[in-house]
Write a structure and sequence with these properties.
Number of strands: 7
Largest sheet: 7 strands, mixed
Shape: globular
Radius of gyration: 18 Å
Strand content: 15-25%
């Protein structure tokens, strides 16, 4: 994705902040535990925290969380939902924290928006020696037939390569690139952990409508795609009648500062 396109997509979420907070899933607790396992201490930065989906999971795990988010509307939703969390305006490219002040930097469905040529040295700056950088992505389990069918119907604007179990490892393998700027990091590790979200046909369509590719789409085209998604879901035996569990996993890319 080119720089201008990435900026357009990454800046699209503010207008849908309330819908994002309502419909996006949280993260598997086991994934967060694995991401933080090598961290030398409990101080964790949730970078690009959005409305606080990962932040809430981190709070529940008992660590000391600071959230940083560039979009004012997303940050307002986070502060409303988690008033006890220290939540600061800032970005991956300009982190408003002192050197060596955190033991881990986590990013939930956000690392792919970072300009790592700038963000890499910033992340290395705020990480303590031995600290962990981890990206987490909630991915759909496309080993399930109806999920694979939904992927075909929805198209890449709603379900992209980072969004499915079959593709997320390849799509995220090189996203960390934090060694720029002198700090050394160990070899990256990837793993995934079972997860799920209770949805209905309407709420799953609303969830997919919060994807960046959908948010920047012309309205007529967006409504046509959402119409196909709803028709697929309301016509399928697994998804047509009330609530169902959307089969997911939380994938983690983890790297440790040496």
């Amino acid at each position: 994705m080119e720089q201008d396109e990435r900026l357009l997509h990454s800046s699209s979420f503010g207008a849908a902040a309330a819908a994002y907070a309502e419909h996006r899933p949280d993260y598997a607790q086991a994934a967060v535990r694995w991401a933080l396992d090598p961290a030398p201490g409990p101080r964790v930065l949730d970078l690009g925290a959005g409305t606080g989906k990962l932040t809430a999971t981190l709070v529940a795990s008992g660590v000391d969380v600071i959230a940083v988010e560039p979009d004012p509307e997303m940050l307002a939703e986070l502060r409303r939902a988690l008033p006890a969390v220290r939540a600061l305006p800032g970005s991956a490219e300009a982190i408003p924290l002192p050197d060596g002040s955190v033991d881990a930097v986590l990013a939930g469905n956000a690392m792919h928006w970072f300009d790592m040529a700038v963000a890499g040295p910033e992340i290395a700056r705020v990480l303590a020696p031995g600290g962990v950088l981890a990206g987490l992505w909630n991915v759909l389990d496309d080993r399930v037939d109806w999920v694979a069918g939904l992927e075909r119907v929805a198209g890449s604007a709603a379900i992209g390569p980072r969004d499915t179990l079959g593709n997320w490892r390849a799509a995220t393998a090189g996203l960390h690139l934090p060694g720029i700027g002198g700090a050394r990091f160990g070899s990256p590790e990837q793993d995934e952990f079972p997860h799920g979200q209770r949805r209905t046909a309407d709420s799953l369509a609303a969830t997919l409508a919060t994807r960046a590719g959908m948010l920047v789409m012309p309205e007529q085209e967006r409504q046509a795609v959402l119409g196909r998604i709803r028709a697929f879901l309301t016509g399928g035996p697994q998804t047509a009648h009330g609530e169902f569990t959307l089969p997911m996993l939380t994938g983690v890319l983890r790297v440790r500062r040496l």
